[in-house]
Each structure stands twice: as C-alpha cells, then as structure tokens.
Amino acid sequence: MTGIAAPFPAPRVRLSRRIFVESFAAHGGLWLLGVGLLVFLTLPLATLFIKSFEDRAGAFIGLANFAQYVQTPALARSTMNTLMFACLTTLITVPLAFTFAYAIQRSCIPLKGLWRSIALIPILAPSLLAALSFIYLFGNQGIFKAALGWFGFTSIYGLPGMVLAMSFASFPHAVMILLAAMALSDARLYEAADSMGTHAWRRFLTITLPGAKYGLISAAMVVFTMAVSEFGVPKVIGGNYPVLAIDIYKQVIGQQNFQMGAVVGLVLLLPAIIAFVVDHQVRLRQKALLTARSIPYVPRPSPLRDRFFLVYVALVSLAMLSVMGMAVFGSFVKLWPYNMSLSLVHYTYGFEEANVEHAYRNSLVLAGWCAFLGAAITFAGAYWVEKTRGADFLRPLIRFQAMLPMAVPGMVLGIGYILYFNNPANPLRALYGTMAILVICTIIHFYSSSHLTAVTALKQMDAEFESVSASLKVPFYKTFWRVTVPVCLPTILDVGRYYFVNAMTTISAVVFLYSPKTMLASISILQLDEAGAIGSAAAMATLIVASSAVVTVVTLAAEAFLLARTQRWRVQART
Amino acid sequence: MAVEPEAPSEALRIEAVHKAFGSFVALQSIDLTIAPGEMVCFVGPSGCGKTTLLRIIAGLETQTRGRVIQNGRDVSHAPPAARDYGIVFQSYALFPNLSIAANVAYGLVNRRKGRAEIIARVHELLTLVGLPDAGPKYPGQLSGGQQQRIALARALASAPSLLLLDEPLSALDAKVRERLRGEIRALQRRLKVTTIMVTHDQEEALSMSDRVVVMRHGAIEQIGSPQDVYERPATPFVADFLGKVNVLKGVSTGAGRYRVGAGELTLPVNGFASGESVRIYLRPEDRHIEGDLAHLPNRFSGRVDHIEYLGTVCLAQVMCERLGQSMLVSLSLNQLHDLAIREGGNLEFALRVDRVRVFGEALSP
Asked: What is the pLDDT of residue B197?
C-alpha cells in the first residue's frame, strides 16, 4: 500500500495564491451582479420614482403631479378603462384556460401533446398579432364584419377587439400555470373519496377546485397584470378606448412630459405590485400543499367526459390556429379583401416603403445577444448567488433585485431607462440609442423568470458538490465548468430560448428606447399598422413567429439530443 | 520506506469552539483532541450539533469563537481548500456527468500529476474499495453502496491526513449498511488515517470507532471508548441514548441499599444520602436467568407480559409486582426455548449489578 502512503501534495505557495484567486472570483462575481442589477434596474426605477415628484425644471414639487393626474378627467377615465379591459380579459381567459388544462390533466383525450403545443403557440407571437387577425376578420375591411352585429357590437375597434386579442395572447400563460397546478394532485385523496362513494361533482368541488385554487389565483394575477400593462394590443385595435399604457406613451413620446409619464408609470406599477405580492404568497402556500409522498393522479377513461373535453379542446385549438393563421394568411394576400391573390409584396415592397427593412435583422441581432448573454449572465448569476460562499450580505440584495423585474411592467422599465440614461450628467448616456441598451433592457425585463428557472435547476443539484470540490482543492469555477454547466445544459438552453422569443416579440420597454437605426421588428409592426400597411404589419408579425418557432424547435431538438446522449449518466440523476 | 518526521501526538485539536446561528446556539463550547490514526464518531440525536462540528472542522462553516488546530497548524479561519482532509457525504455527491474514474481522479488532475500516474492511482483506489472495474461507468449506473465506496475512494485519493464522514451510511439499506460499516473500519485501520464520522445511529458509532463522542444540545455529554460509553455511561442521557435501558425509581437507604417499590436492591454504588431519591439504570442484559439463582442477591420474578421477538436476541417485558414496575429482560433465542419462556408465564431473574449506574434525581431527565 505504498501508493496510499505517498500523498499527492499540493505545493503550499501555489495553493494560497489559488485560494485568493478563487475567493476573488466568488466575491467579484457577486459584486458584479449586484452592481449590474443596481445600475440597470434599481437606479432607473428610482429615477422614475423621483421624477414623479419633480416639475419640468427638476424642482421638487411634492405630490403636485399626482394631484394633476387625479384632476385630469382623461387620465382618470383611462384608469377605469384599463381596469375594465383587464378584468374582462381575466374573466374570459382564466375559465377557458382552466377547462383546457383540466381536459389535458384530468381526462383521457388523445393527442394531449399536440393540443398542449397548439395552446402555447401564441407565446411565439407578439401579443398584437391577434389584434391584426381580428382586424382582418372583423375590422373595417373584415370578411366577417357583418357577423359583429349578431353579437350586438358595432365595431371591433375598442374594448371588444382588445379583450378578444388579449385573451388570445394571455391564454398560454394561464394554461401553463394551470397545467402545472393540476399536475400536482394527490391520487390518494381521490381514492379516499371514491372509497367513501363520493359523487363526481362533489369530488370536483371538494378536491379538484381547492387543489387548483392557488393555480387559479396565480393565473388570474398573471393575466390581469399582462392586460394592465399591455401596449401593443390597445395601440392596434384600441380605437378610441384609451388605456394607461397608451397614455404613458403619449405623455412621454408625444408631449415629452416625462414627469407625468413617471406618475402614470407609478400608477401602472400599483396593480402589478399587488398581483406580484398575491402571487408570491400563493406560491409559498402551494409548496406546503403536497408532500414528497403524494401519488400523482392518473385519470381513468370515461367516454362521455372524454368526448366532451375532446370537442372543447379541439375547438379551442382550432380557434388558436385560425387566429394565428389569419394573420399569416393575410400577410400573403395582395390587397385585403379586394385582391385575394397571394404574393410576397408585403414582405418586400411593403417593408421598403415604410423604411423598416433593417428592423427584422435588428430583432434577430437583439434576440441573439439576449439569448446568448442572457443565458450566460442569468445562469452564472444564479450560481454565484446560490452556490458560492462569503459576502453573504450581498445575497438577499441580489435575490430581491432579481425578482423585481417580475413586478415591473415593461412600459415602466422603459420610462425609467429614458429618464436615467438620457440624462446629460450620466456617464452611461453613450448607451442611449444603441443596440446595447436594448439588449440590457430586454435581459433585465425578462430576468426574473429566467433567474427562477436557473435557481430551480441548481437547487436540484447535490448541495455538497461545492464542498466536495473544495475538499479536493479544486476551485469552484472548475467544478462549475466541468459539472454544473454540463448537467444544467438543457436548462441553460431553455433560458436562452426564453430570452430569444421574448426579445423577438417584446414591445413595451424597448418602444421607448429604440432609435431609427435600431428599429425592431415588433415595433415596426406598430408603425406599419399606423401607416395603414396592415399587410406588411402582418408580414412582420409572421416573420417574428417563424423565427421564434424555428429557434424553439431547434433548441427543443438540441435538448432532446443532449438528454439522449447523456442518457447513460442521467439514468438515476433524473429519478 | 523513508524515514518520516516524528508524528505529532495529536492530529486535531478543537479548542472552545462555539457556534451560534443568530440566537440559536448550535455548539456551546467544544474541546476535543483526536490522536493520529484514531477513528472517532460524533453521535447524538438530530440537532445536537454533531454535523455543525464536522462542518467547522472541514471549514464549511465558520465557528463563532474558538480554534481548530490540525497537525499543529491553526486552521481556524482557513478556507476548505487550505485544509487537509477528504470528505464523504450522506448523499455521495458524486459528479453525475463524470465517469467513476474521473470522479476519483477529480482532485488529482488539479495537482499536475502525469496521466499514467493518475490512472495507476485511480486503479489502486478502486481496487482498495473493491470495485476495480467500475472506472468507465457513471455514478447513476451503480448501487447506493457502490456509489458510497466511490465517494470514499475519491476522498482518499490525495491521501489526506484526515477523513471526514458525514452520515455516510444513512442513505443505504440495512444489509448494505452493515457490510460497508465493517469495510470502512477495516480500510481505516489499514490506512491508519485519522477519521471522524458523524452518525445518529448508536450501533454504527459503537461498532466502528475507537472513541465515541456523545453529544446533546451543542455540548459533549461523554467521550470514551465504545465500552466506556455503553457500560459506564456518564449521564442518564448517554445511558438512554446508547442501547436500551431499564430505569428504576428508588430511594437510597444508605450503605449501598436502595428501596424500589416494595423491593430492595443491594448495589456496589455508594455516595447517596439515606432518603435521597435516585434513578437506577440497568440494561436488559444485566441479569442472570440460568443456573441456580437461589443464593444470588437482587432476585425478582414477574409475569411475562410480552416478548419482542428479534431473532438471536429477544426482549421480554416482565411485570415485577415487588418493584412496582415492568422491566425489559433480554434473552437469547436458546434461553427462550430452553427455559420455555412464553407470554403469560412467569420468569425469575437476578439482577447483575456490576454495570449498574445510579444517578441522583436532579440529573435525570
């Protein structure tokens, strides 16, 4: 046993230098992340907050701006409109999504994967795509315009169109939450109920509904918040129905009234923060609902129920596909509805005429950078926060800032950026109007969900990997590279895809920050629509959907490939 | 073999180590010295601070006060990488995406050793833990017991002077656990590596260690050899935590005599004033039941209420009217049959008092 007695000593001098480098890397990373979030998130928001108490000259005027806001009848009406719009959307979307998720999780219909994918399609599109489709269908030149009268509407523009389009856009978000909520159910509860001879309806009321309660609240909050802060849909199909998001835009871009923009932004922040807090509480309780010993519920076939749900799910999917298909089809029609022959004129001449040919390329560049940098920063950041040691006072500060973007509507973030970066005294002003600021703003805007995804993946890894590698005198960054990244690669790809798709479709924050040179595809849709070029607007939306779809399919394929290739070592790790 | 410098008489010294998490005191003030080549177990109920103490020794937690001295070097505030130890966790913590060989070599690669040297070393270690052919496999393809052996090989790869085992057997099946227990102990003896193991399993602690450190509420209750702590527990807690024990409530009547219920015991224990209330601790095996009991002192009999059948050893619950309480009496399977002991029957026994412990009322829980 001479080998055991002969150690492999690590030279002391090199070791102490390495330890210094290691702790520098750990603390440096935390500081970098903390300062980055401070500069690109907290300071812009703080600036917005301060500006709302100042007049145009920058003097402190207390609550005068707020007083003026309350006394402006137009703004007060917008607030009511916004609430009406958001409530109606929530009331329509959540029950539809609940039934859909129930059908997928609790019945035995065939092709569940297909229906699920179709329901998630709207995520690939900018929210206003549905608005374009409804204009094609029911707008001034709509083919089914006459059908509006049957339902007692005179025009699709305004509240009806907004609610319809928003329901479409928010549907997948509600479905995802409810699918997850209903995936978590304990079969033993149902078995106990059955053994006591409980009727199906009573079982639904006493087990299913309470079990999905938190999911329902969470879904309602998400849909409500999306609608409150939505900009694209009201811009395209809102007609003369002003909402807060439009008001902010008019105040800031139209009238250059940054102070009033800040005030409206803060008003917009209110429902978002309430929703965020409620949702957070709900998530905390949801955790306690299930124990590790729960047995997942597996539905048994029931012909009548299954047939009903199959019809429902097929109808919803058909509606999804037709709304999506309408815009795509419209983008190829020469002159809706007069000349229905197909052509690519909206993709070529249409873009050229509106001078937005570079917008699509810009969007790809933005989305590429966001996917690449976003995934790298988010994952490394989550690792720094969760797995390194030392500088513990920084961690809660970073965690809080990482969750903050979830509570901040894009419009509010956008104004914060203008106010903060477009300030001559700010050394970072050079960023203003560049692609870099769009990349930074978009990564920040979608940071929270990505951060949570990364944290979840990291928490599933053995908590002792870092301790083991420290005892083996291997610096944490080597273990990060050799173990953490390879094991989490599917998650990292997921985060990258999430950034890409959102960067392609986002409007709300970047609409304040683009310059003519950095015009984006999603924003150009608004311009094209305003210019009456609805065909080209639809064409641009179609390009966005196509790109998002391609990237989604490619990343999913890559993930599947990775999982298959690493099957050998994932055998147990995944059970 | 090269001449080695004289080994220091202590491998590890812990001086007044105190640890508080906010207002919760995890460790009160721990002093402990461990000799080179010794195997020491920290044992105690969950929350007693044993894992915290191990993590402080590893540098994974930092003590609030006190010092940790390893091989004469003060490592109190050294990061884990600057200390010299290998560690094995309950969860194995094998890197799932690396082969077994790469896992074992993980700490060697970093030391700029030649490839051939590393390969030879890995093979040697895998042979040492009895899995010479596991090299190309992945952790997910091995059983729990096998994974834990690989974790052990990885911890030993760089020949650390100290091996830390954090509940290494708790995640394993009973049978595997028992086998691995013996293997780890044999390996430790062979390599003479100073080892600290944390466990909540008293049997594990007794069977594997040179010395047992029994902990409770962040303090050490007793340190001693397995025999010491089992046969001469210093406190009622230790007596109760390690193994089964009968607790008799009695009153000292002076000169080694104690009244229990309506009976009287004569014990080789003095030092209690007459009239003082005491608790008398006796193990189930502290009894004579075979042969001629007539001339033995401390003889009692009672009705067998229940027999807990455990295989080689069975436990009889015997109600002694004279003592006013029920006693656990252990019986070998042979005795059970030879003496025809059955539930509802009668059993006569004499207490073996050479290992009895008597504690004053105040000490008892």
From this structure: 95
The DSSP-derived string for A74-119 is HHHHHHHHHHHHHHHHHHHHHHHHHHHHHHHHHS--S-HHHHHHHH
3-class secondary-structure state, position A301: coil
CA pair distance A381, A458, nearest whole angstrom? 11
CA angle A361, A362, A364 (to 5 degrees): 65
Q: What is the pLDDT of residue B8?
A: 60
Place of tokens 């907050």: A49
Contact B233, B357 (CB under 8 A): yes
Q: Which helix (H) or strand (E) holds B216?
A: strand B211-216
What stretches of A107-158 show up as alpha helix (H) in DSSP? 112-120, 128-138, 147-150
Mutual orientation of helices A521-530 and A128-138 as an angle, nearest 10°?
30
Q: Note the pLDDT of residue A539.
A: 94
CB pairs under 8 A, 24+ apart, for A1-8?
A: A1/B190, A1/B191, A2/B1, A3/B120, A3/B121, A3/B124, A4/B124, A4/B128, A4/B156, A4/B159, A4/B191, A5/B1, A5/B159, A6/B159, A7/B158, A7/B159, A7/B160, A8/B108, A8/B111, A8/B113, A8/B121, A8/B157, A8/B158, A8/B159
Residues from chain B contacting residue A3 (CB–CB below 8 Å): 120-121, 124
ipTM confidence score: 0.80
- Taking an 8 Å cut-off on Cβ atoms, the answer to whether A470 and B95 are in contact is no
Chain A interface, mutation test: which of B95, B142, B143, B192, most A Cβ atoms within 10 Å? B95
Identify the CA nearest to B104 among candidates B60, B58, B165, B149. Answer: B149
> What pLDDT digit, counting tens, does each position of B107-134 carry?
887 666 788 889 999 999 999 999 999 9
Contact A479, A540 (CB under 8 A): no
